[in-house]
Amino acid sequence: MDLKQLEEKLFPLRTKTYCVLDGAAVKELPKRLYEMAPHHECLVRGELTPDMVHVAPYVALMIRGDDFSDWVLENTLGGNCGIFINTRFSITEMRNHLRALMAVHTEDGKPLIFRYYDPRVFRKFLPSCDAGQVETFFGKIDRFLVESEDGEGMLAYSQSEGTLKTDVLEL
């Protein structure tokens, strides 16, 4: 995957770019977030146990050309480590929206965590949604970008009035 071409696609003008990274898939993610200090938020509410800190998902602001963004692009692609988001909204608004998407319940009411931020889950889930679900899932998000199944490109998901559009970005 050509990183320069990917940067062109990930960082459009007039929107912010966030990544949602899976701590279970990214080795030492909390350490990297601490050392590189991007603006980030944990998507799991409350105080976390030490084990949970290392497997929790995090949303982080990406800025083209900064150390953290370069590290993400160089070290997480091809490993189903997370997804990317384009939006005009703040990280706090994104954290709140993304947290809400994680909370699901079984038919008998048992709470579960929906791991939509795993590209393997995302690629199967989003196309199966109806128009109302698509609108709810996107919320204030303009576009989701997810690595393709073969890891050689990206899938860009956008929507208009609940109609999902998927573009394949060859890199």
Throw out a few tags for this protein.
171 residues; globular; seven-stranded antiparallel sheet; 9 strands; alpha+beta
Describe the structure.
The protein is an alpha+beta fold and 171 residues long. The protein has one domain. Helices cover 34% and strands 29% of the residues. It contains seven helices and nine strands; from the N terminus they run αβαβαβαβαββααβββ. It has helices spanning 3-10, 29-36, 50-55, 67-75, 91-102, 119-125, 131-138; strands at residues 16-22, 40-42, 57-62, 82-87, 103-105, 111-113, 143-147, 153-160, 163-170. The strands form two sheets. Strands 2-3-1-4-7-8-9 form a seven-stranded antiparallel sheet, sandwiched between helices. The longest helix has 12 residues, at 91-102.
Q: Biggest sheet: strands side by side, in what order?
A: 2-3-1-4-7-8-9
Roughly what fraction of the amino acids lie in strands? 25-35%
Radius of gyration, CA atoms, in whole angstroms: 15 Å
**First CA to last CA: what distance?**
5 Å
The count of helical stretches stands at: 7
Count of domains: 1
**What's the helix-strand series?**
HEHEHEHEHEEHHEEE
Number of beta strands = 9
How much helicity do the residues have?
A: 25-40%
The shape, in one word, is globular
Q: Which structural class fits the helix and strand makeup?
A: alpha+beta
Summarize the structure.
34% of the residues lie in helices and 29% in strands. The protein is built from 7 helices and 9 strands. Strand 8 and strand 9 form a beta hairpin.
